């Protein structure tokens, strides 16, 4: 990469990662080497696999992906705190609005959303949706249109939600050109992406073209839209970057992201790999069915299977659910730290697992 895809700076650093990279649908291996390029000015990180991803996305975002994402990958609406609390906490005026939900494939989630808006119009756009679907909430007089046709996005919107899709955008210039067309001085954009400074394992999701930190995401929107953007700190998105862009303010200041996040992330992953390689068990479980667990599984021998307390992504791997009978005498590896790690450790203790190895 000769210059930054966001700010056009030519000050670029790069780092090679020799780990297994997987897709986020079912964690199938994609490749075992990626070169990441990071802009030293704005902080955005770009994968070297753009040409691969162009072809991959055409086959990946299909009908089966839509079904998996709306039913399995994304838990039901009432169980996701971000959807349950977001509208109530962040959007106070919910009457006579036009809202765009960019990249939401869940009919269930959008139907639930119409309960919180009065006399409003919601457009839910997602590339994996094959047919248009219309819904009208008689009680709140709020309509919703599900579409995969970009031509249906043409009005000026009061609220735009961009949740967990920005990392797949291959052409940022076209994306922001669209955003400029559909916003006005009262518009607000809420954006959420996986944050590698909060969870380094997110770097291993190989189907993502862009990687973000809090600062990089903030800079991306301020540089391209010239509008004030604020980093929001909310507990219901503890491992994500969460920002709001306000179109009623032209006052903004780009923050130089001079932290070497790629080196830090590489060191964290390498040290975890080293610890995992040194573990020796006759039989062992790994807790969780997410990217953390898959990474650990690459280096630990004699894994009996995965243990989880919720629906999982794994179709070809053996998963034991805590609500069912699980052999508690077998050691279990917990690949989580921080608040989540403490929560899961207490959960496993309550379930009477005797030996828990937290790494």
Write the layout of secondary structure elements.
Layout (H helix, E strand, L loop, with lengths): L11 E6 L3 E2 L6 E3 L2 E6 L5 E3 L2 H11 L2 H11 L7 H10 L7 E5 L4 H7 L7 E5 L7 E5 L4 E6 L11 E5 L8 H10 L6 E7 L15 E2 L2 H12 L2 E4 L8 E7 L14 H17 L6 E4 L3 H7 L5 E6 L10 E3 L9 E4 L3 H13 L5 E3 L1
Parallel strand pairs: 6-7, 6-10, 7-9, 10-11, 15-16, 15-18, 16-17, 18-19
Antiparallel strand pairs: 1-4, 2-3, 4-5, 5-12, 8-9, 11-14, 13-14
Structure, explained:
- There is one protein chain.
- The protein has 359 residues and is an alpha/beta fold.
- The protein is 27% helix and 24% strand.
- It is built from nine helices and 19 strands.
- The protein has helices at 50-60, 63-73, 81-90, 107-113, 172-181, 214-225, 261-277, 291-297, 338-350, and strands at 12-17, 21-22, 29-31, 34-39, 45-47, 98-102, 121-125, 133-137, 142-147, 159-163, 188-194, 210-211, 228-231, 240-246, 284-287, 303-308, 319-321, 331-334, 356-358.
- It has an eight-stranded mixed sheet, sandwiched between helices. A five-stranded parallel sheet has the order 17-16-15-18-19, sandwiched between helices.
- Strand 10 (159-163), helix 5 (172-181) and strand 11 (188-194) form a beta-alpha-beta unit.
